[in-house]
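@channel sequence for tomorrow's demo:
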Amino acid sequence: MTEPVAPDNARHGGEGDAPSEHGGAGASPAAWALLAATTVVGLIIDLWTKHAAFAKIASVPVQITREDVLATPMLGALIPPHDPVRVVPGLLELTLVLNPGAVFGMGAGRRWFFVVFTFLALGFGLYMFSKWTRPREWSAHVAIGLLLSGGLGNLYDRLVYACVRDFLHPLPGVVLPFGWHWPWGGNEVWPYVSNIADLWLCIGIGVLVVRTLRMPPPTASRPTARTD
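C-alpha cells (generated this afternoon):
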C-alpha cells in the first residue's frame, strides 16, 4: 500500500524546533532583530536630518510648533526667506518646506486621513514581514524596515507638528526637454522637495518591486510516495 509521506518538519516538528526556512519570518528572532534595527536606525537618521536642516539651512534656526501650523493658512509664512544650499549644482539643493500632505505634497489638507492610513500601512508592513517573507530573506526585511522607518518618520511630524518637514530638492532647475510641460503644470523635471523618510519609502518600495519581478513562478509540490 502506498501513502504520502509527511515532510520531516511536519512529522518531527515541535514547539522547540527552529523555524523552517519555508515558514514565515515572524518565527525568526534574527529576522525580527534586523527589521527592528533597520527601522530604528532609519527613523533616527530621518528625524536627525530634519532637525539639523531646520536648524542650519536658513540664516536663523527655524522653530516649528503645532499651534503655529494650525493657526496659519500659509505654511510658507513660518519659514524665513533663505537661499537654497547647493550641495551638488544641478543635482541636489537643500531648502526648507513645510508639507501639509503626503509624499511629494500630494493630498494637502488631509492630515488625519494620512495619519490613519499610515497606521494601517505600518500594520500591513508587519503582517507582510511576518507572513510573506522567509527567515533568511534579508533584503526584503531591510526593505520593509525602511518602509516602516519612513512611515514612522513622517507620522511623527504629522502628530507633533501637524505637517511634514521637507528639505531635499533633487535636480533643482533641471527642465524637461523639447519644451515639454507636465499635465498639471510646470516644466521642472523634479519640482518636489522631500526628506529622508520619503527616500526610505522609495528605496523600500523599489527593492520589494525588484524582488517580486525576479521571483520564480511557484511550482506545485507533489507528495512523496512510499511502498510498505
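heads up for whoever presents: Helices lie at 8-12, 29-56, 66-71, 111-132, 138-161, 196-214.
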